[in-house]
């Protein structure tokens, strides 16, 4: 180890993480400059070439390799193609399989998960799992973050998801409601480039769909066509209901909005910018049309003409081979490259990305209103060696933004201790943790899978991973008794639960099938495989948490995340009800049920004398939640720490509850809204420095 207080010019903003949250903030901030004459932030589109402006200086840290951040065309394509080749060679096609799993910046991997026998932890992988149940989701520490391997499904949360306490006496209400977040959802849908059909969306909500989306609102791109398999299931279930909890629930199947390129929607109009307007109360972001510039699908980061349309490769998890699916590198590139006066892309010299840099601790300046005064990181030299350089960065005049995933953000905070004097006694505190909520309320969607054989061929694997969801169970009075859920129809046959087609080949070979007979048996089975998927909401539980323990360190000497996790009766009963719903739908469709949950499954339990098993959805949420008061939350509704005036903590960990939607769109909307507060703080900083 080499100790180094790194001399450098002070930065206005330091962002930890280059995933979607960090990239959105970097892009939106660098789209604005400070007008020194007017004393306010303005968008680049308003720049007067005669005047001079203060550019924002931004430094981003990424724990992963530089290779993932090489956004020039040649190296970007080379790196991404290497990911694809790695994916082809991996036996297990799990979410992290294409990407480097670094010993200096390890990632949680589903292949590392094992059953837990309390009090002994499962410490095979990066996570140290004390259970009593395994946390079943992974993430990836890489340039662009987990959006490199997400599915890309982008439904919004429902109005009641923000007020579970008020409506159902459960959990805790958000400090904002759906109507406040609605314009930021529109901004997130623009930035991600969402494909979908607003007119076909139908949810169990009291609001009209016109009120929910807004009059005449459309997604930027037209709907990705629903698969043939989906159409056969829709035809078989149309107009029917399932009986649950003494209630008849009609089945509603809608095409899923998703962050992948299709045909730009002419009704969406021109392309847009997200622009800040100042007022006495601060800044407000809004979408503004760009005249005479049509909306275009954004292709790959190395070639805008590659990946302009989804090609239906069905490998969305873990990798889209053409980058038709959105990933955060597309947004990051917009921060790193700006259009100059000649309409050419030019590298923005005011933003720097430093890879192979693991931020692990923050320091506090008690003499200056508990401001974050230093960022501590370990920069490793190469992916082969464990040598590192210790760097300490002065942040006394800087806004610090933690934008890592919901494991890493709380891990950094919990590792950041400082001492204060209270009533003449030394008291140890933890950064941003006055509420004792840092690391608590870890949530995920428990994924219960059911699978079977359709009576006729439906041909899975044609198209993206999922194009339809059953929205009927996303809300209802039953939420006072058990979880809501959404049910995507998965387009992957039995690959997830039963490792098809390899397991089918093995089974038929074991039965003596060979040649034409083997081919015929495989064609019959694989073409009829259907997979139903129940993403079950988990409530915030303070005992489900991320902690740290100096007994469990990585190779850089940084604490690993220690996980305590379990399901409650509320979630287990939802699994019971979801299986009842599946049984009724399978019976109506004539599907032969092959679902089987085994005692040898890593993540299994008995409920009412029946065995169930769950998987993770990769929706890691809730470990630094926002709230209305500093007593029960880590940040305010703008993701600003209650305890430290120059610290923001953004990402999925800021979500108060989970709802039934994939969290990426919501965390993006919340992150975009946080930029309004960051711009106000920057304005104040610049005015203070000027004085």
UniProtKB/TrEMBL annotation:
InterPro entries: FAD/NAD-bd_sf (IPR036188), GMC_OxRtase_C (IPR007867), P2Ox-like (IPR051473)
Cofactor: FAD
Assigned keywords, A-Z: FAD, Flavoprotein, Oxidoreductase
Family: Belongs to the GMC oxidoreductase family.
Species of origin: Chryseobacterium wanjuense
Domain Glucose-methanol-choline oxidoreductase C-terminal: start-end pairs: 540-670
Protein name (database record): Choline dehydrogenase
UniProt-recorded Gene Ontology molecular function terms: oxidoreductase activity, acting on CH-OH group of donors
Taxonomic placement: Bacteria, Pseudomonadati, Bacteroidota, Flavobacteriia, Flavobacteriales
Key word Cell division present: no
Top-level taxonomic group: Bacteria
Signal peptide start-end: none
């Amino acid at each position: 180890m080499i100790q180094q207080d790194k001399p450098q010019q002070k930065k206005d903003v330091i962002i930890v993480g280059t995933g979607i949250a960090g990239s959105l903030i970097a892009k939106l901030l660098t789209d604005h400059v400070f007008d020194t004459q007017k004393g306010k932030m303005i968008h680049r589109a308003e720049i007067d070439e005669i005047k001079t402006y203060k550019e924002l200086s931004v430094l981003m840290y990424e724990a992963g390799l530089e290779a993932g951040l090489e956004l020039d065309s040649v190296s970007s394509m080379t790196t991404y193609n290497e990911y694809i080749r790695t994916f082809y060679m991996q036996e297990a096609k799990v979410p992290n399989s294409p990407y480097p799993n670094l010993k200096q910046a390890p990632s949680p991997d589903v292949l590392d998960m094992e059953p837990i026998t309390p009090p002994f932890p499962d410490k095979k992988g990066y996570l140290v799992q004390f259970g009593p149940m395994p946390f079943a989701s992974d993430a990836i520490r890489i340039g662009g973050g987990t959006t490199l391997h997400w599915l890309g499904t982008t439904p919004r949360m429902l109005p009641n998801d923000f007020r579970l306490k008020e409506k159902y006496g459960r959990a805790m209400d958000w400090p904002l409601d759906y109507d406040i977040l609605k314009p930021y959802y529109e901004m997130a849908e623009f930035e991600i480039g969402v494909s979908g059909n607003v007119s076909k969306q139908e949810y169990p909500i009291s609001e009209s769909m016109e009120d929910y989306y807004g009059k005449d609102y459309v997604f930027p791109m037209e709907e990705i066509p629903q698969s043939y398999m989906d159409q056969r299931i829709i035809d078989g279930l149309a107009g029917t209901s399932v009986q649950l909890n003494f209630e008849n629930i009609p089945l509603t199947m809608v095409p899923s909005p998703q962050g992948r390129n299709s045909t730009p929607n002419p009704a969406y109009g021109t392309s847009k910018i997200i622009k800040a307007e100042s007022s006495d109360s601060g800044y407000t972001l809004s979408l503004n049309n760009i005249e005479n510039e049509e909306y275009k699908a954004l292709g790959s980061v190395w070639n805008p003409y590659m990946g302009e349309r989804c090609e239906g490769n069905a490998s969305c998890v873990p990798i889209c081979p053409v980058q038709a699916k959105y990933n955060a590198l597309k947004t990051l590139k917009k921060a790193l490259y700006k259009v100059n006066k000649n309409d050419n892309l030019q590298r923005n010299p005011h933003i720097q990305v430093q890879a192979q840099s693991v931020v692990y601790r923050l320091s506090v300046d008690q003499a200056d209103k508990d401001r974050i005064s230093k960022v501590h990181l370990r920069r490793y030299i190469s992916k082969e060696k464990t040598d590192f350089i210790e760097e300490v960065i002065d942040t006394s005049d800087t806004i610090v933004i933690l934008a890592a995933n919901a494991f890493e953000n709380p891990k950094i905070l919990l590792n950041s201790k400082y001492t204060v004097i209270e009533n003449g006694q030394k008291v140890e505190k933890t950064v941003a943790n006055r509420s004792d909520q840092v690391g608590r309320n870890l949530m995920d969607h428990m994924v219960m899978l059911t699978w079977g054989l359709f009576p006729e061929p439906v041909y899975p694997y044609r198209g993206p991973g999922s194009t339809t969801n059953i929205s009927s169970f996303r809300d209802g009075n039953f939420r006072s008794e058990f979880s809501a859920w959404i049910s995507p129809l998965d387009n992957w046959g039995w690959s997830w639960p039963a490792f098809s087609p390899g397991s089918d080949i093995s089974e038929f070979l074991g039965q003596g099938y060979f040649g034409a007979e083997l081919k015929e048996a495989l064609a019959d089975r694989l073409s009829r495989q259907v997979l139903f998927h129940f993403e079950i909401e988990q409530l915030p539980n303070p005992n489900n948490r991320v902690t740290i323990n100096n007994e469990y360190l990585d190779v850089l000497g940084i604490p690993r995340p220690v996980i305590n996790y379990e399901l409650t009766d509320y979630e287990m009963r939802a699994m019971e009800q979801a299986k009842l719903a599946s049984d009724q739908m399978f019976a109506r469709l004539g599907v032969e049920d092959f679902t089987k949950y085994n005692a040898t499954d890593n993540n299994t339990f008995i409920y009412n004398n029946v065995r169930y098993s769950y998987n993770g959805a990769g929706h890691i949420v809730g470990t630094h939640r926002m709230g209305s008061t500093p007593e029960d939350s880590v940040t305010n509704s703008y993701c600003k720490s209650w305890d430290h005036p120059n610290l923001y903590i953004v990402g999925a960990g800021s979500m108060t509850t989970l709802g039934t939607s994939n969290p990426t769109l919501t965390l993006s909307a919340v992150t975009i809204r946080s930029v309004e507060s960051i711009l106000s703080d920057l304005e104040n900083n610049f005015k203070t420095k000027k004085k």
